Amino acid sequence: MQPTIKASLAAHGRDLRIDFARGIANWFMLIDHIPHDVVGLFTMRNFGFSGAVDLFVFVSGYAVAILYGKMTLERGFIVAASRIIKRAWQLYAAHIVLFVIYINAIGWAAERYAAPDIIEEYRVIGILNDPVRVLTHGLLLQSRPLNLDVLQMAIVLLLFFPVALAGLLRWPNLTMLGSIVLYFVSRQFGWGLPAFPAGSPYLNPFCWQLLFVLGAWFALSGGKFVRTLQELWPLRVLALAYLVFSLLIMVAAESPAIGSMLPDILSKAFIPIDRENLGLARVLHILSIALLFTWLVPADWKGFHSRLMQPIIKCGEEWLACFCAGVFLSLAGYIVLITSPNSYLLQVLVSATALVLMTAVAYYVSWSRQQDRGARLGPARAKDDHAIADR
């Protein structure tokens, strides 16, 4: 491990920006997954080329690099690699449980409310007449029902992260270059993992690994480089201009009146945005956001400790439970909307209720974990830990 990386890992403390960003990503993904919802017009994907998934993947790469980089520093690479694989297995187990319940819920909803279109819309074709085949492909991460692709991609990225971590700790720049090469080669030659049914859209991990590794690279060795870039005011202006430009393009895509004012070459160059293979415009957009956000908001910003921020941060801390809850909450919200007299008020109420329930899940999981930890440590040790935390 390079000395500069050791120093960087040792200097890393609690950064609430990570939990805040993952919490925002979870909230936005939940809203985005409820079709025909007016609240979805105010999520991240409508204001630029990237969206909540891009934010989640980038920040997750940053977070896991710090976590397992410190573990490597303290306990060795073998222990860190084994813990990464263990975490990937935990995500896979959560995916299997979620997948089985989810596709059965979709099948039940389609039959209960006489809405067979849901089966095709949620990409679980065959669940009614050939459930074994659908389940088998699900176990192999090939069957990708709507809204589960983020978790499936996270599993694949974690499985290969020990290799990336080893490279980032020894040869960070060369490893980052390899990630960039893999990204462009995968886009050029159509490399990816098989999907079921054939042609089913999903997030290609061969391309999306770029954001994940970028986040890890910035965490381990790119901190000084980023701080240098942030001091260049022309670059900050350029990043802001790119964000404004992407907003203009997205608004033009939704509004024919504004779109007619722009050259067709601009709209055709950026719309539709390549989500499956992570279009380069998305990468530049999320990097521009990261550059400006980390420049404006320091890691020790007092606003993160306000009561207003706590629900978002809590959903970032318990991101897996929130994501799993969000998958079912978005499905439930969609069913409510298609089986009720639809209105803007109902859409707002459905979204607000889903967010409240997701946040409640985060607080419950956090509380339950604290109780389990207290039971393992014993009353005296738990009391001492609370006293230390209070100080």
Oligomer: single chain
Shape call? globular
Helical percent range? over 70%
Largest sheet: none
Distance between the termini: 34 Å
The average pLDDT value, as a whole number, equals 87
| Uncertain residue segments | 382-391
SSE class: mainly alpha
Tally of extended strands? 0
Radius of gyration: 22 Å
Question: How many structural domains?
Answer: 1
Strand percentage: under 5%
Helix count?
18
Q: Could you spell the SSE succession in H and E letters?
A: HHHHHHHHHHHHHHHHHH
What features would you describe in this structure?
With 391 residues, this protein is an all-alpha fold. It has one domain (3-367). 74% of the residues lie in helices and 0% in strands. It contains 18 helices and no strands. Helix 3 (52-75) packs across helix 9 and helix 8 (172-189) packs antiparallel against helix 9 (205-220). It is globular. 39% of the residues are buried. The model is unreliable at 382-391 (pLDDT under 50).
Task: Write a concise keyword list for the protein shown above.
mainly alpha
Topology:
Elements: H1 3-11, H2 16-32, H3 52-75, H4 77-112, H5 117-121, H6 131-139, H7 149-170, H8 172-189, H9 205-220, H10 223-230, H11 233-254, H12 256-259, H13 264-270, H14 280-296, H15 310-317, H16 319-338, H17 344-377, H18 379-390
Question: TL;DR of this structure?
Answer:
The protein contains 18 helices and no strands. The chain has 391 residues and is an all-alpha fold. The protein is globular.
